[in-house]
Structures are given as structure tokens and as C-alpha cells.
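Example complex used in Figure S2.
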Amino acid sequence: MTKDEIKHMIIKQILDIAPDIAEDEIKPNENIQRSLEIDSFDFLKILTAMNQKTGIEVPEADYAQVDTLEKMTGYFFERL
Amino acid sequence: MSQFLMPSLGADMESAVLMEWHVKEGDTVKKGQVIAEVETSKGVIEIEVFEDGVVEKLLVEPETECKVGTPLAMIALDDESSIQPQTAIPQEETKEEKAVIVQKAPEPTAQQRINISPAARKKAQELGVDLTLLSSKIEGTIQLGDVEEAAKSELKTTSDATLNNEGMRKAIAAAMSLSNATIPHYYLSTTINMTPSLKWLEALNAKRSIEKRILPAALLIRASVKALQEVPELNGFYKDDSHQISEEISPGIAIALRRGGLITPALLNAQELNLDETMQRLGDLITRTRAGKLRGSEMTRQSITITNLGDLGVESVFGVIYPPQVALIGFGRITDAPWAEGDALSVRKILQATLAGDHRATDGRTGALFLDKLNQFLQKPEELL
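Predicted assembly (465 residues):
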């Protein structure tokens, strides 16, 4: 999978879980939870959905490494 | 024979539109079964029957707006002896709530029945078309085409408002005005060291798959429920000038909707749930709230409210009690802060827990006792499993 494909996969999970968010609101380097008003429950749902797609589990200790779209993309890319 | 009445889905509700029957005459129904969907200012709610029996007659056609307490159906009960206790409670509740509303709440003006086809109503909801506004411009029944036309034109409400938004705002306004006008609130706040709980949770989650992880929000709810079992006075109602303690602990969980507004559906019988079940049911409740698929019982049985504004970065919450409840528990954001223990100073994860109490029902001492118990449970999280 290319980095771009992963990025689109993440965007799709965000839009599925928060359908009222417009795609261009998701900025690559902004904190996903704060900038999009995604609460801890929805954030966990995004990571769960990504786990189902990729088989990669993000441990809680790594949450700081996946807090923006860019960082999350990199995180999954490196581990695939 | 028992009458199935339009339930009051919250102290702020006067009427709702019966949207759809899930049963027909002659069907056997079981206690707790969803038999109809109604549309309220808070969205579409599934309503349940209170007893086992057979649907004798449906009294109301779909698409009819009915006041709270209107008979919707006749149900022949399996066990005639159960009529008394089971029907008496909802009836009494609706009467009481209606009386309060008539006295205190402003008369809703936009609640008149709107003539609209079912398909058009659905479409309007999807497109966010304001039906009150539309009905003032269209004579006769609003059809699908009218709604689509309206969505295209200027009639469409502002981009982030939905059909329900205005109604929900009004409902919140009525309930909160009533609260501030009638409930003498007292407020208490305490600082809780969350490091033990969070460390314990981290270790627990590290051993689990991602689907089974527990969020701090679930732990806080579980700790609140355990503390309420020890200080039950805060879990209940103030009605007819008397304080009634509820045996069932069904906290209303404040869930903000991204498009605006707030719903506090009940986590029913939370006293029967362990930590895993609390997390599971919380997840289910949040998902269904966002999807607009709540049950009537979840809109009516809240015995206390829990609000958690931590995700938004707020440090402490001083809430407004939702009548006829007598307390509201508030949680803020978990932050890093200096923490003195003995003569050592260290950095700990801390949380502000607050309690708003109805001073007619309880005193500050009861509230303080509760916050103390809550704190104790969060220092020994293994007891919350």
C-alpha cells in the first residue's frame, strides 16, 4: 500500500465515523481530535476501523504518534 | 385491558408525532419490545411497551401528532394482575410532568401538526429543511417535490442546523429555565489524582485487543455508579415537594451532537454492569445517539446526569440539574499538575470532579460524601472491574 492510499483510508474512516466533517477540514498537521471535535470514543473507533483494515493495533502508549493525519499515515506506513 | 399512552420522553416534551407502528392489531408483544417510532424535537425515538400482552387496537394513525398521555393503542394484558403497578407509574409521571410544563415552560409555537407526506418528512430531515417555515408557505400537504425545491432555495436553514436543531434548542431552553427557576443548586468541587486509575487502565488495555479497550470515560461512570450506591440520596428525583430516591441507577450521559445540541440518554441500570459492560453499553449508547436510534426508556429513566467536558479541554464543569433529577456530576479534562503528597512534590494526572446538587433534596454534606467516595474508588480502580 502506498502512503497516499493509507492517507485516504484514514480519511475515509474519519468521514465514516463523523459524516458531518467535510474532507477539506481534515488538515494534515492538526490534532485530529481537537481540530475536528472527535472525542476519545470516536478516536478509538477510528483506530479500531484502521486495525480491521490493516491488522495493525496502535497501543495507547503510541497515541501521541498518531494524533495528526500526517503522523498517523506515517505510523501505519512504517508498520505495514 | 390497558391503554398504551404517548410517553413523556423528557420533562420538556409536550407532544410527538407517531411516525410508524412496528406492530399490527393481533400481534403478541413482550415487555420492553419496541412497538412504535415517534419523532420528537430530539429525533426519532423507539418506544417500548410496558407489559406482555396482545395488541387489541391501534388508536392512532402514523403521522399524527399526539400530546403526552394520549392513548395510542389498546393492549390486552397476559397477566391482568400486572395492570395496577405497571400502568400507574407512567401515567402518574406524565401527568406530573405535564402539570409542571403547563405552569412554567413557554408555550411552544412551532409544535403544530404539519401536513406532510412521510417520504417528504424523511427527505426534509435528510436535507435539513425547516418544515415550520415551509408549511407557512405551502397550502395543503407538503410533498416530496416541495421539500426538494425548498432545499435548493433559500428556505434551507443554515448549513450546520438540522430540522431538529431548533426544536432541540427550545427543549433544552425550557428544561434549563425550569431548572434554574425552581432548583436551588449547590456546587462542590474536588481534585482527584487520576494517576493510579490511568496507570491501572493502561496496564489493563495493554493486554487487550483494541476492541476491548476501556476508555477513562467508562471508568469514571463506573466509579460514579459505585459511589452512588454508597450515597444513594443523589440518585433520584424531587417531585411533588418530596425527595424520592431511585433504586435503579440510570445515569443520563451527556452526549454532544457535532451539529449542535445535546442529548442525555440513560445508561439503564448501570448498577448491574461491570466495567467491561459499562464500556460496551456506553459505546452502544453513543453510537445510537449519533444515529438517532434511542429507545423511549433511555429518554425517560435518567436518575442523575453525568457530563464529561474533558475532551473539549474544559477543566471543571458546574452543571445545571435536569429536573426532576436532583444532582449532576461533572468531569473536566485530565491534566498534568504538581501534586503534594506528604512532603514530596511530584507531577500527577489530575481531574476536577464537580457535583451540582438540588438543595431541596440534599445538603452539601451529602454531596461532599459522594465526591469523597468517588475519589476513593478512583484510587483503587481494581475494585471497579
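Chain A is about 60% helix and 0% strand. The helical segments of chain A are 3-17, 32-36, 40-54, 69-79.
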